[in-house]
Amino acid sequence: MDLDTVTEIRSARELDGWRPGDAWLAGGTFLFSEPQPHLTRLLDLSDMGWAPLEVTDRGLEIAATCTVAELARFVPPAGWTAVRPATGPSLVEQCCHSFVASFKIWTMATVGGNICNALPAGPMISLTAALEGTATLVAPDGARRFVPVADVVTGVGTTVLSDGELLRSVTLPTSALRSTTAFRQASLYPVGRSGALLIGRLDPLEGSLTLTVTASTVRPVQLRFGRVPDAGTLAAAVAEAIPAQAYVDDVHGLPAWRRHMTRRLAEEIRRELEEGTR
Fold first, then answer.
1. Helix (H) and strand (E) counts for the chain?
2. Spatial separation of the C-alpha atoms in residues 247 and 54, rounded to whole Å
3. Which SS3 state, helix, strand or coil, does residue 251 take?
4. Average per-residue pLDDT for the chain
5. Which of 110, 159, 104, 105 is nearest to 137 (CA)?
6. Strand pairing class (41-44; 8-11)
């Protein structure tokens, strides 16, 4: 779609200060998908030269400009069972395919853009929140702050980002990457947008379970247990953590259906991870 209010596209390297009407441009798959009458200038991040993916002593650093295709092709080190399981598709593959998008979107859409759009069905939110990702946010004056991805999204289309603040990268810690995970996703249609997407993560050392709920809720919800709980404990925890008004209500699923699927998928994850501990 043509953005007829935009009069300038400038490299982010040449930024002369943030001003009203500016927007960061990464892949642009969302920016160019609908009218943006409030925008007058786009600041292009594509030539910033950030390495898409970098294995460090802390874990995996994912640049905001890393595309879905680049992430899907990533071959992780041995031992990172969360993203390199012995059998079956990896958590990265499952989340990438949750886009239900063509290869053209995969080669342009970015991890950072998906997180910053803050749509409930954003699978990069699901992936990075479930793996305890920490977002590095950079203000126009260069000041940095570090926020858990699960706390970056505050509602449908809203985040903690202040005016002009940029998501630079997301770091996934090695401890989470070495976990055992279980993935469940539900949609009203075989190729529809996610109506519920849940990821369970079992810590191999502590035996603790973290359940991350996305897509069905207006923002990510995480439940933590010292060990895999029984069915009743899990059901009660989900009911308490997610009140009725926290479920999304749109054409992709009514709140009652999303609540039902969240509880059903949570129990499926609990059973799968419990079996894995035996």
1. 9, 14
2. 35
3. coil
4. 94
5. 159
6. parallel
Rounded distance, CA 271 to CA 274, Å? 5
Q: What is the phi-psi region of residue 164: left when phi exceeds 0, alpha when psi lies from -120 to 50, beta otherwise?
A: left
pLDDT at 61: 98
In a shared domain, residues 181 and 171: no
The pTM of this model reads 0.95
CATH number, domain of 206, equals 3.30.390.50
The CATH number of residue 91's host domain is 3.30.465.10
**What range defines the domain where residue 21 resides?**
8-43
What are the residues whose beta carbons fall under 8 Å from the beta carbon of 237, sequence distance 6 or more? 223, 225, 229
DSSP 3-state of 170: strand
Q: Do residue 168 and residue 62 come from a single domain?
A: yes
- pLDDT value, residue 278: 65
- Give the Cα separation of 133 and 146 in Å (integer): 10
Residue 170: closest CA among 153, 185, 190 = 153
SS3 content of the chain, % helix, strand, coil (to 5): 30, 25, 45
Structural domain contains residue 2: no
At residue 204's C-alpha, the angle toward residues 203 and 207, to 5°, is 60
Is residue 1 included in any domain, yes or no? no
